[in-house]
Structure formats: C-alpha cells, structure tokens
Amino acid sequence: MTTILDGKALAAKTDENTKIEIQDLADRGIIPGLVVILVGHDEASQLYVRNKDKRARKMGIHSVVRNLPETITEEELIQIIHSYNADPTINAILVQLPLPAHINEFHVTTAIAPQKDADGFHPVNLGKLIVNRTEQTPIACTPAGIMKFFKAYHISLDGKKAVVVGRSTIVGKPMAALLVNANATVTIAHSHTKKLSELTQEADILVVAVGVAHFIKAVDVKNGAVVIDVGMDRDAQHKLVGDVDFDEVKNKAAYITPVPRGVGPMTISMLMAQTVSLTKWSSE
Ligand code: GUN
C-alpha cells in the first residue's frame, strides 16, 4: 500500500496555523511584510513569484513584488536590498533565484540582513543550521516543508538511511543538514557521484532535487522507501512532471510526493510561515 503525500492538504493546514499567528500579530497592530525581488523575465520564476504574491495577499501579509530589469548591476541590486533591510514595513526579503549571470548570488544573499532572510540562505543562518541551533533561525523553505511532511505523516528519521540527490544551497545541502540533525544517516549524491543507483537503492528516505524529468525510475528505489520529489520539470509534451517517474515508482514506495500538489505548495506555505516568524522574532 502506497501513501501519496498530499502537499495541497498539508499546505492548507499549515496556512490555517499561520493565519492564526497573523491574527495575533494584527491584534498587536503588526502586519508582516514580505518583499520578493525578481530580476529579469524568466518565465518559471515569474510564475513562482506570482504564486507567492497571491498566497501572501490572501493570508493578509503585506506583499511587495519588486520587478527589476535584467540589466541591473549587482551594486544597484544590493543598494535596493539595503533599502529593504532598513524598511520597517518589511520583515522578510526574498531574491528569486536564479539571477542573471553577471550578478553573484553569494554577494546578493549575503547582503540580506540575516533577521530578514526569508530563504535562510544567508551564511549566518546556514551556519546555525549546521550547528543545529535553529531556534529563531530561518531555514530554506523547500527542505523545511519536506520536514513537515515527515512530521505530519509520522515518518521516523532516526537511524534511517537517507539519500539526498542534488547539492544545491536551495535544497540539497540544507535538506541534508535537517536530516542529519534528525539523526538520519545521510548521503548527498550529485552529478559526479559514481554508481548513483546503487546508493539510491539503499535509501529508506530518498529526496530528489536535480531538475531532470523522470530522473529516478523504479529500479533506483528500495521497496517501501519514502520518496520525496522536489522536481518541477517539463516532459516532452510540456506537462509539469517531477524528477521521479511517479507512475513507476509509486508501486514500490511506501510514501511518495506527487508533482504537482506535493512539495511545491508546502514550499510556499513555509515561506508564509517564515515571514510571520521573522516578524514575531523581530517584535520580541
Ligand atoms: N528559486 C527556486 N526555488 C527558490 C527558493 O526557494 N528561493 C529563492 N529565492 N529562489 C528560488
């Protein structure tokens, strides 16, 4: 029996809790403020930003989308980030990635004040995650949302073999840190990994974030595994699919996230929750 992890339902439940916190803040005269900065016209990024803005507004968060031209310089972008660092109506800043090639992502994520870091990508916040001091620390929204799935479905991680495929700062590395903090035995695999399938076949928990449609097939998965698919890919028919071949793998996994309605909706919910948390922490 396979359980399909329902990201839409879990996101709705998470949002209900976040709304209660927004109401508590409103009672104190505080409105959480989120700015999402989008550089250029990447179509996928525009869609993600629109979804974040829509959800934030629906929940009563003060949402600002700042569209900037592809040609903006790194210095100009950092100036704009500094202005939001100093803006008391803004509690959370997110710069949508990827950025154009002439802008250095590390310089940009480091310019965001750690206490307004909606993504948890600032090295101070990533460092706190590594040393497992995550109280009042923002954490990358996609891995944080995946941890909520484990909790909601009572999936234990202690002593389990976890394999994370992908080593990005957005997903793979913070995911691995969260899993190891939860006492899993963690392997990070990536494009240079040899005999990847042998590794993934051993995984009790398999998290895939590589951005390649249907990269993981049934043969790569252990019977009874928990399979988490972070992919948002397009197949040959331009249909939205994941990094995992869902139709094949679902017969082998004990738990699996679908695409869409899996990890994606939870990522946005975690951004909303984190915006509210940053607001609360700064008001204490
Ligand atoms: N691009 C894809 N995912 C993310 C994310 O979680 N945060 C940011 N800032 N950009 C992204």
Automatic annotation (TrEMBL):
UniProt domain Tetrahydrofolate dehydrogenase/cyclohydrolase NAD(P)-binding: residue ranges: 140-280
Binding site residues for NADP(+): G166, R167, S168
Assigned keywords, A-Z: Amino-acid biosynthesis, Histidine biosynthesis, Hydrolase, Methionine biosynthesis, Multifunctional enzyme, NADP, One-carbon metabolism, Oxidoreductase, Purine biosynthesis
Domain Tetrahydrofolate dehydrogenase/cyclohydrolase catalytic: 5-119
Gene3D superfamilies: Leucine Dehydrogenase, chain A, domain 1 (3.40.50.10860), NAD(P)-binding Rossmann-like Domain (3.40.50.720)
Catalytic activities: (6R)-5,10-methylene-5,6,7,8-tetrahydrofolate + NADP(+) = (6R)-5,10-methenyltetrahydrofolate + NADPH; (6R)-5,10-methenyltetrahydrofolate + H2O = (6R)-10-formyltetrahydrofolate + H(+)
PROSITE patterns per UniProt: THF_DHG_CYH_1 (PS00766)
Pathway assignment: One-carbon metabolism; tetrahydrofolate interconversion
InterPro entries attached to this UniProt entry: Aminoacid_DH-like_N_sf, NAD(P)-bd_dom_sf, THF_DH/CycHdrlase, THF_DH/CycHdrlase_cat_dom, THF_DH/CycHdrlase_CS, THF_DH/CycHdrlase_NAD-bd_dom
Keyword set includes Magnesium: no
EC number: 1.5.1.5, 3.5.4.9
Family of the protein in this entry: Belongs to the tetrahydrofolate dehydrogenase/cyclohydrolase family.
Subunit annotation: Homodimer.
NCBIfam families assigned: PRK14186.1
Function: Catalyzes the oxidation of 5,10-methylenetetrahydrofolate to 5,10-methenyltetrahydrofolate and then the hydrolysis of 5,10-methenyltetrahydrofolate to 10-formyltetrahydrofolate.
Name of the protein this chain belongs to: Bifunctional protein FolD
